[in-house]
Design brief:
heterodimer; A: six-stranded mixed beta sheet; five-stranded antiparallel beta sheet; B: seven-stranded mixed beta sheet; 11 strands
Chain lengths: 110, 116
């Protein structure tokens, strides 16, 4: 059974204070690791897809990296508008469905 | 990026009535659509997966007769909550994946269902 564990559960940062979110996973035959951002009362917004160890992707202040066991979402010089829940999900060979972690609630204070 | 819409964004109904939620992929053809349920401060729980023109596949513990899913076309899927009860109150989110190209799932904005 595919499993995803995200840490920390919650993270509070000051504006400009860089940090990283962790996503540890076990999956049979990784077909993709996905990062989403979810604001309260809204659906998840797609950020990145990573397919193989060593792959990295960037978007504005966010950078996602992937190893064989975990992924990191690095946030550089965050701003208050980066506050949200960040969800990590994997797709294995199990009928193509995503397995989600519990998410990390990020709060960035001005 | 690809856009997925849901309608309505929120609905309040009386216990015992049925509610239909629509999910549309606006700028791509969705060969597969997914329906999720999310409780406050929890992650997404997959309810069912549907492919265009075929019956939905439900996750274990999800009642097929209560949550009717129809994927009638490559751009539309509907979820009907039949004989809704207060315990069905939740945030329902659909997701769509297109044919060809990157296999990313794009999510709709969600529908808040409140059953009185």
């Amino acid at each position: 059974e595919d499993q995803v564990t995200q840490s920390p559960e919650a993270l509070r940062l000051q504006e400009g204070e860089s940090s990283s979110l962790n996503c540890s996973y076990t999956v049979s035959g990784l077909r993709g690791l996905f990062w989403y951002r979810q604001d309260p009362g809204k659906g998840p917004e797609f950020l990145f897809t990573l397919y193989s160890a060593g792959e990295e992707k960037e978007k504005e202040r966010l950078k996602a990296t992937l190893t064989k066991k975990e992924s990191f979402l690095h946030i550089t010089a965050p701003k208050p508008e980066d506050s949200a829940t960040y969800l990590c999900a994997v797709r294995g060979t199990s009928y193509g469905k995503l397995t989600f972690g519990q998410g990390t609630i990020l709060t960035v204070h001005p | 990026g690809a856009v997925v819409s849901q309608h309505p964004s929120w609905v309040i109904c009386k216990s015992g009535t049925s509610v239909k939620i629509e999910c549309r992929s606006l700028d791509f053809q969705a060969t597969t659509m997914f329906w999720y349920r999310q409780f406050p401060k929890q992650s997404l729980m997959l309810m069912a997966t549907s492919n265009e023109g075929s019956k939905a596949t439900y996750e274990q513990g999800v009642e097929k007769d209560k949550f009717l899913i129809n994927h009638a076309s490559l751009t539309l899927s509907t979820l009907t909550v039949t004989s809704a009860h207060p315990e069905d109150s939740s945030f329902y989110i659909c997701s769509a994946r297109g044919r060809g190209g990157p296999d990313t799932q794009y999510f709709g904005p969600g529908t808040r269902l409140t059953v009185l």
